[in-house]
Design brief:
Radius of gyration: 22 Å
Distance between the termini: 26 Å
Helix content: 25-40%
Strand content: 25-35%
Shape: elongated
Order of helices and strands: EEHEEEEEHHEHHHEHEEHEE
Number of helices: 8
Structural class: alpha+beta
Length: 257
Protein backbone atom coordinates (compact mmCIF):
# COMPACT_ATOMS: atom_id res chain seq x y z
CA UNK A 1 0.00 0.00 0.00
CA UNK A 2 1.17 3.54 -0.71
CA UNK A 3 0.69 4.43 3.00
CA UNK A 4 3.59 2.09 3.71
CA UNK A 5 6.04 4.09 1.60
CA UNK A 6 9.25 4.96 3.47
CA UNK A 7 10.28 8.65 3.80
CA UNK A 8 12.83 8.14 1.00
CA UNK A 9 9.94 7.58 -1.42
CA UNK A 10 8.12 10.67 -0.17
CA UNK A 11 10.81 13.22 -0.96
CA UNK A 12 13.39 12.66 1.76
CA UNK A 13 15.93 10.47 0.01
CA UNK A 14 19.55 11.52 -0.36
CA UNK A 15 19.04 11.56 -4.14
CA UNK A 16 15.77 13.52 -4.09
CA UNK A 17 15.07 15.57 -7.21
CA UNK A 18 12.30 18.20 -6.81
CA UNK A 19 9.13 17.23 -8.68
CA UNK A 20 8.89 20.82 -9.92
CA UNK A 21 11.75 22.80 -11.44
CA UNK A 22 11.57 26.45 -10.44
CA UNK A 23 12.24 28.52 -13.58
CA UNK A 24 14.84 31.29 -13.48
CA UNK A 25 13.36 33.73 -15.96
CA UNK A 26 12.36 37.36 -15.63
CA UNK A 27 8.80 36.96 -16.83
CA UNK A 28 8.08 34.39 -14.12
CA UNK A 29 6.39 36.45 -11.40
CA UNK A 30 8.33 35.07 -8.44
CA UNK A 31 11.70 35.63 -6.78
CA UNK A 32 13.46 32.24 -6.70
CA UNK A 33 15.73 31.83 -3.67
CA UNK A 34 18.30 29.16 -2.85
CA UNK A 35 18.09 28.47 0.89
CA UNK A 36 21.12 26.59 2.28
CA UNK A 37 20.31 23.90 4.85
CA UNK A 38 21.97 20.70 6.01
CA UNK A 39 18.52 19.16 6.41
CA UNK A 40 17.95 18.86 2.65
CA UNK A 41 19.45 16.63 -0.03
CA UNK A 42 22.20 18.54 -1.79
CA UNK A 43 22.49 21.04 1.06
CA UNK A 44 19.83 23.48 -0.14
CA UNK A 45 16.17 24.01 -1.00
CA UNK A 46 15.03 26.16 -3.93
CA UNK A 47 11.86 28.14 -3.18
CA UNK A 48 9.84 30.38 -5.47
CA UNK A 49 9.15 33.43 -3.31
CA UNK A 50 10.51 35.38 -0.31
CA UNK A 51 7.64 34.30 1.94
CA UNK A 52 8.63 30.67 1.46
CA UNK A 53 12.26 31.59 2.25
CA UNK A 54 11.02 33.13 5.51
CA UNK A 55 9.16 29.90 6.26
CA UNK A 56 12.41 28.02 5.73
CA UNK A 57 13.92 30.04 8.60
CA UNK A 58 11.28 28.51 10.88
CA UNK A 59 11.90 25.00 9.57
CA UNK A 60 15.69 25.13 9.59
CA UNK A 61 15.93 26.50 13.15
CA UNK A 62 13.42 24.00 14.56
CA UNK A 63 15.42 21.06 16.00
CA UNK A 64 12.26 18.91 15.92
CA UNK A 65 12.38 19.02 12.11
CA UNK A 66 15.01 16.56 10.91
CA UNK A 67 14.63 16.70 7.12
CA UNK A 68 13.29 19.22 4.59
CA UNK A 69 12.64 18.75 0.90
CA UNK A 70 11.49 20.99 -1.90
CA UNK A 71 8.58 19.95 -4.12
CA UNK A 72 8.44 16.41 -2.71
CA UNK A 73 6.05 14.77 -5.20
CA UNK A 74 2.98 15.23 -7.38
CA UNK A 75 -0.31 14.62 -5.58
CA UNK A 76 -3.44 13.48 -7.42
CA UNK A 77 -6.73 14.47 -5.83
CA UNK A 78 -10.41 14.31 -6.87
CA UNK A 79 -12.60 17.39 -7.37
CA UNK A 80 -16.34 17.60 -7.06
CA UNK A 81 -19.17 19.85 -8.21
CA UNK A 82 -22.81 19.93 -7.13
CA UNK A 83 -23.48 16.77 -9.13
CA UNK A 84 -20.71 14.75 -7.51
CA UNK A 85 -17.28 13.72 -8.75
CA UNK A 86 -15.96 16.01 -11.48
CA UNK A 87 -12.35 15.10 -12.35
CA UNK A 88 -8.88 14.47 -10.97
CA UNK A 89 -6.44 17.35 -10.52
CA UNK A 90 -2.79 17.33 -9.53
CA UNK A 91 -0.63 19.57 -7.37
CA UNK A 92 2.99 19.62 -6.21
CA UNK A 93 3.38 21.05 -2.68
CA UNK A 94 6.30 23.44 -2.29
CA UNK A 95 7.87 21.91 0.82
CA UNK A 96 7.96 18.73 2.84
CA UNK A 97 9.18 18.26 6.40
CA UNK A 98 9.96 15.13 8.42
CA UNK A 99 10.01 15.54 12.19
CA UNK A 100 11.74 13.60 14.93
CA UNK A 101 8.67 11.40 15.47
CA UNK A 102 8.71 10.39 11.80
CA UNK A 103 5.62 12.49 10.96
CA UNK A 104 5.63 13.96 7.44
CA UNK A 105 3.89 17.18 6.47
CA UNK A 106 3.67 18.75 3.03
CA UNK A 107 3.10 22.49 2.88
CA UNK A 108 2.51 25.44 0.60
CA UNK A 109 3.20 29.07 1.33
CA UNK A 110 0.47 31.34 -0.06
CA UNK A 111 0.13 35.05 0.82
CA UNK A 112 -3.14 35.92 2.51
CA UNK A 113 -4.08 38.40 -0.25
CA UNK A 114 -3.87 35.64 -2.86
CA UNK A 115 -5.94 33.29 -0.72
CA UNK A 116 -8.61 35.99 -0.37
CA UNK A 117 -8.82 36.47 -4.14
CA UNK A 118 -8.89 32.74 -4.90
CA UNK A 119 -11.51 31.01 -2.74
CA UNK A 120 -10.86 27.73 -4.56
CA UNK A 121 -7.58 27.44 -2.63
CA UNK A 122 -9.54 26.53 0.50
CA UNK A 123 -11.37 23.76 -1.34
CA UNK A 124 -8.10 22.50 -2.82
CA UNK A 125 -6.50 22.51 0.63
CA UNK A 126 -9.26 20.31 2.03
CA UNK A 127 -9.02 17.95 -0.95
CA UNK A 128 -5.23 17.69 -0.62
CA UNK A 129 -5.45 17.04 3.10
CA UNK A 130 -7.84 14.16 2.52
CA UNK A 131 -5.95 12.69 -0.45
CA UNK A 132 -2.51 12.88 1.18
CA UNK A 133 -3.70 11.33 4.41
CA UNK A 134 -5.64 8.54 2.72
CA UNK A 135 -2.93 7.74 0.17
CA UNK A 136 0.29 8.31 2.09
CA UNK A 137 -0.46 9.08 5.75
CA UNK A 138 0.99 12.56 5.15
CA UNK A 139 -0.37 15.82 6.56
CA UNK A 140 -0.87 18.95 4.44
CA UNK A 141 -1.15 22.60 5.43
CA UNK A 142 -0.94 26.11 3.99
CA UNK A 143 1.14 28.85 5.65
CA UNK A 144 0.78 32.60 5.18
CA UNK A 145 2.11 35.79 6.78
CA UNK A 146 0.06 35.24 9.94
CA UNK A 147 2.05 32.08 10.66
CA UNK A 148 5.45 33.18 9.36
CA UNK A 149 5.89 36.87 10.21
CA UNK A 150 5.16 36.63 13.93
CA UNK A 151 7.40 39.13 15.71
CA UNK A 152 9.69 39.11 17.54
CA UNK A 153 9.79 35.36 16.92
CA UNK A 154 11.01 35.64 13.32
CA UNK A 155 13.57 38.31 14.30
CA UNK A 156 14.97 35.93 16.93
CA UNK A 157 14.98 32.94 14.60
CA UNK A 158 16.94 34.94 12.04
CA UNK A 159 19.56 35.64 14.72
CA UNK A 160 19.80 31.95 15.59
CA UNK A 161 20.15 31.07 11.92
CA UNK A 162 22.79 33.73 11.24
CA UNK A 163 24.93 32.67 14.19
CA UNK A 164 24.59 28.90 14.10
CA UNK A 165 27.65 28.37 11.89
CA UNK A 166 29.68 31.40 12.98
CA UNK A 167 31.22 30.05 16.17
CA UNK A 168 34.28 28.27 17.45
CA UNK A 169 33.65 24.65 18.61
CA UNK A 170 35.88 25.34 21.62
CA UNK A 171 33.65 28.28 22.59
CA UNK A 172 30.53 26.14 22.24
CA UNK A 173 32.04 23.48 24.51
CA UNK A 174 33.04 26.12 27.05
CA UNK A 175 29.47 27.44 27.17
CA UNK A 176 28.13 23.87 27.49
CA UNK A 177 30.40 23.32 30.50
CA UNK A 178 29.15 26.55 32.04
CA UNK A 179 25.53 25.49 31.53
CA UNK A 180 26.25 22.12 33.14
CA UNK A 181 27.38 23.96 36.30
CA UNK A 182 24.37 26.27 36.32
CA UNK A 183 20.82 25.55 37.41
CA UNK A 184 18.45 26.13 34.49
CA UNK A 185 16.32 28.05 33.80
CA UNK A 186 18.84 30.86 33.68
CA UNK A 187 19.32 33.90 31.45
CA UNK A 188 21.78 34.88 28.75
CA UNK A 189 23.11 37.46 31.23
CA UNK A 190 23.73 34.73 33.80
CA UNK A 191 25.86 32.83 31.29
CA UNK A 192 27.81 35.98 30.38
CA UNK A 193 28.55 36.53 34.08
CA UNK A 194 29.70 32.94 34.51
CA UNK A 195 32.08 32.63 31.58
CA UNK A 196 34.39 35.11 29.89
CA UNK A 197 35.44 34.17 26.37
CA UNK A 198 37.72 36.71 24.70
CA UNK A 199 36.67 37.99 21.27
CA UNK A 200 38.40 36.39 18.28
CA UNK A 201 41.44 37.89 16.61
CA UNK A 202 41.68 38.45 12.88
CA UNK A 203 45.24 37.96 11.69
CA UNK A 204 46.39 39.43 8.38
CA UNK A 205 49.74 38.81 6.74
CA UNK A 206 51.06 41.49 4.39
CA UNK A 207 54.41 42.44 2.88
CA UNK A 208 54.86 44.79 5.84
CA UNK A 209 54.37 42.10 8.45
CA UNK A 210 51.64 40.36 10.43
CA UNK A 211 48.80 42.44 11.88
CA UNK A 212 46.28 41.30 14.49
CA UNK A 213 42.86 42.88 14.86
CA UNK A 214 40.67 42.08 17.86
CA UNK A 215 37.06 41.68 16.73
CA UNK A 216 35.43 43.43 19.68
CA UNK A 217 32.01 43.43 17.99
CA UNK A 218 31.90 39.61 17.99
CA UNK A 219 30.21 38.05 21.02
CA UNK A 220 31.42 34.43 21.34
CA UNK A 221 29.08 33.57 24.23
CA UNK A 222 26.00 34.77 22.36
CA UNK A 223 27.04 32.96 19.16
CA UNK A 224 27.63 29.74 21.10
CA UNK A 225 24.17 29.98 22.70
CA UNK A 226 22.59 30.50 19.29
CA UNK A 227 24.40 27.39 18.04
CA UNK A 228 23.17 25.33 20.99
CA UNK A 229 19.61 26.54 20.38
CA UNK A 230 19.90 25.60 16.71
CA UNK A 231 21.02 22.06 17.51
CA UNK A 232 18.28 21.68 20.11
CA UNK A 233 20.32 21.32 23.29
CA UNK A 234 18.66 24.39 24.80
CA UNK A 235 15.54 26.47 24.24
CA UNK A 236 15.46 30.26 24.29
CA UNK A 237 12.41 32.38 25.06
CA UNK A 238 11.29 33.69 21.65
CA UNK A 239 8.45 35.89 22.91
CA UNK A 240 10.72 38.92 23.35
CA UNK A 241 13.79 40.11 21.47
CA UNK A 242 16.93 38.38 22.66
CA UNK A 243 18.72 40.22 25.44
CA UNK A 244 20.58 39.47 28.65
CA UNK A 245 17.15 38.82 30.22
CA UNK A 246 16.26 36.03 27.74
CA UNK A 247 15.47 32.79 29.57
CA UNK A 248 17.39 29.60 28.76
CA UNK A 249 15.99 26.14 29.45
CA UNK A 250 16.95 22.66 28.36
CA UNK A 251 14.88 21.50 25.40
CA UNK A 252 12.34 18.80 26.09
CA UNK A 253 11.87 16.43 23.15
CA UNK A 254 8.34 16.61 21.85
CA UNK A 255 6.08 13.60 22.18
CA UNK A 256 3.13 12.52 20.08
CA UNK A 257 0.79 12.63 23.09
Amino acid sequence: MSRDLPPERLGFGADHVPAFKVPWRAKFKTVPTVFPTRKAAGGHVLVREPLAADLMIHFDTDPAIKKICGYPRKVIYPTYDRYGFSKFEDHIPALGILNEQGVITYADCIPLAIQSKRPWIERRTEALQLALWNDFGVFYTVFDERDIHIQPRLWNLRLIWRHHRDNDPADVNAVRRALDLMELPATIGDVRATIDIPPPIWRTETANGVFDLTLDDVDPVFSALMSLAFTGLIELNLSQRFSDETTITYRQKRSED
